[in-house]
Amino acid sequence: MDVLQRIERALEAAVSRGIGDGCPPLLGQAVRHAVFTSGSRARPRLCLAVAASCGDDAPAVSDAAAVSLELLHCASLVHDDLPCFDDADTRRGQPSVHRAYGERLAVLAGDGLIVLAFENLAWNSAHHPQRLAPLTRIIGRAVGISHGIVAGQAWECESNVDLTAYHREKTAALFAAATEAGAAAAGMDPAPWHVLGENLGLAYQVADDLRDVASSADELGKPVGQDAAHDRPSAVAELGLDGALGRLTELVTGAADSIPVCRGRDTLRTLVYEEMRRLLPEHLARQLD
Length: 289
Known about the structure:
Elements: H1 3-19, H2 25-35, H3 42-53, H4 59-80, E1 90-91, E2 94-95, H5 97-101, H6 103-123, H7 132-142, H8 149-155, H9 163-185, H10 194-214, H11 217-220, H12 226-229, H13 235-257, H14 265-279, H15 282-285
Helix pairs in contact: 1-4, 2-6, 3-4, 3-9, 4-6, 4-9, 7-9, 8-9, 9-10, 10-13, 13-14
């Protein structure tokens, strides 16, 4: 089984268990719509890659950590697309959840996915209970009101925003959680893995800012030009196109160089560079070579 099959199987198990027999049918459909549209699964792939590099001695726990991160990411996308934020019609090439099921069910689906993420951690840590508390702390902090994606979304409501702080909370927090959780799930010290995740997450956000001005809606699977339309901070607005590309290169190099010595170091370095090339429009990706 390859890593994507492993992730999809674990996601299906978590969502099916969460929906159960008593979930209102439309809510269950909205949750499935939010999770099972085509996505890169970048965060769970990163989590499992780090777990593998650290020995992955408890696959059920690393699967749970990876899936919980993806459930939280999906929840953030549902809420990000709502009319009170981006009012986006599409996500991952499909109608956004509030367009398909209405705003009320979209709010509830996003809320439910947040709860399910932590239920899933608890369900799958029974044989390694000593790993549950560190994982809960790592993942909870990444979605929190001080250092996480809730804070990142809230910075969009402020008039004065530090771009790096905004990107760190909006995107990098969940990537840092992915690398730390991968190590913690395998029973290793998560601290040395923080820089890899944070730099990679910051790079993802810069890449997203670049795609927002240099891609089409068909390529991106969601509306483009959203940063300018909503007057949001962005790397392109602050640094220009060339400056944003330079910042991206700096972050990718920093991410790759920060990988701790481990048996999967070369594989992880390759993954970092391949991800950045995959994210960018082809004419920009060539400039990373």
